[in-house]
Specification:
Its main location: membrane. By secondary structure, the protein is mainly alpha-helical. It is built from 7 helices and no strands.
């Protein structure tokens, strides 16, 4: 199953950095169609030791969640060819041919989003000075 990195979810949920939230909003539409480069290079995820850990772990975790549900028979093995740009959840339906694929992708989405939240909070702590300056700029505006 396709599982785009869900950086935009975690930034909208937990980030206090104004810049990160702006990039997240800009990258939301491409991310819907599994185009993650604006967030990967704009946040940045690339060469960022904080986000590197969840970035590397999210894909295998999503894979093994889907594999688990395939092994227990909840979803059938994927046999349909679906373009990679089909949005998450809709692609789950098209890959499996039933609503169970959507459920599995939703579970993957939730788990991988929860994986990122502690790292976003660490990023907030490390950038507390920048966040405080952003809040002062807002108050002065």
């Amino acid at each position: 199953m396709l599982l785009v990195p869900f950086h935009f979810h975690q930034s909208l949920i937990a980030s206090k950095r104004v810049g990160a939230r702006k990039i997240t909003k800009i990258a939301l539409l491409p991310a819907i169609f599994n185009i993650s480069e604006p967030i990967t290079f704009g946040l940045p995820i690339v060469l960022n030791p904080i986000y590197f850990i969840p970035f590397v772990l999210a894909q295998p975790i999503g894979f093994y969640i889907a594999l688990f549900f395939t092994k227990i028979g909840f979803i059938a093995p994927i046999v349909n060819n679906v373009p990679w740009t089909v949005p998450t959840l809709l692609s789950g339906l098209l890959y499996t041919g039933n609503i169970r694929g959507v459920i599995v992708q939703a579970i993957c989405l939730i788990v991988t989003t929860l994986l990122y939240i502690p790292f976003v909070k660490i990023d907030n702590k490390l950038n507390a000075e920048r966040i405080a300056m952003d809040e002062m700029d807002k108050a002065n505006s």
